[in-house]
């Protein structure tokens, strides 16, 4: 493994599941210890806001667009709900999947009620589905809204998700987003670091957070505190709203090489584009994540051009 952290199998992975865990982790990270997670769970979180409208390619209106991208682009794992896998998985059996266990819409705003998102199904049900469908399900994901009045409910569920997933040899990614009436700044660097520490206490293999922000300071520099707080839990940042490919790739490059992030979790910056553009973006992100490619090479790949001479 060539990543900056060697793989350590958690002690809650029983001996009978250790080989499966090691293989699932290897496949998800392509043996690098870094994760390129293609996030396709927003159909619940953001309804159709992310899939139709100004600046969004018409391809994105069809759920199958997500599966086409995951099938043809280079990714570590495609995260989405089990219902979509039940509908489309038979046509895309070669795609590496991560099942998102919980989700809520954005209709009820935080100002009206603190967020609560509970599990739709159990790890046991995911394992049964994996065996029945024979799909390549390598892990599970769960979101915790830290600072919500209901955080205790989500923290308990998240703890059980990690424990049960590890018992089955599955890899875990816990989304941790500070959000609620008591949260003044969701991107506060100290708070983001605390969110990463929570994921470490849950025993998760990866934590997905929003990149920290503070006026006048590089987000990548701010990320160092979060990576340190996460310990052996590997940190990936959410991609956020779609932006210019070069700017997005530059930010990702800094998160990895300055902030110490272990990859990325990208949705809208991939799937809101046409299929050819989305595939190129996947390949550019994966080159940065898995291949230690430089920024110039990744930008060239995103444009469908050959990398500069002697690179890539």
What does this protein look like?
It is a single chain. With about 300 residues, the chain is an alpha/beta fold. It has one domain: Aldolase class I (TIM Barrel, Alpha-Beta Barrel), CATH 3.20.20.70. It has twelve helices and eight strands. It has helices at about 15-30, 40-45, 65-70, 80-90, 125-135, 150-165, 190-200, 220-230, 245-255, 270, 275-290, 295-300; strands at about 35-40, 75-80, 95-100, 135-145, 170-180, 205-210, 235-240, 265. The chain has an eight-stranded parallel β-barrel with strand order 1-2-3-4-5-6-7-8, surrounded by eight helices. Strand 2, helix 4 (about 80-90) and strand 3 form a beta-alpha-beta unit. The longest helix has 17 residues, at about 150-165. The two termini are about 20 Å apart.
List the helices and strands and how they pair.
Blueprint: H1 15-29, E1 35-39, H2 42-45, H3 64-72, E2 77-80, H4 82-88, E3 96-100, H5 123-133, E4 136-146, H6 151-167, E5 171-178, H7 189-202, E6 206-209, H8 219-230, E7 234-238, H9 245-257, E8 263-266, H10 268-271, H11 275-290, H12 295-302
Parallel strand pairs: 1-2, 1-8, 2-3, 3-4, 4-5, 5-6, 6-7, 7-8
Helix pairs in contact: 3-11, 7-8, 8-9, 9-11, 9-12, 11-12
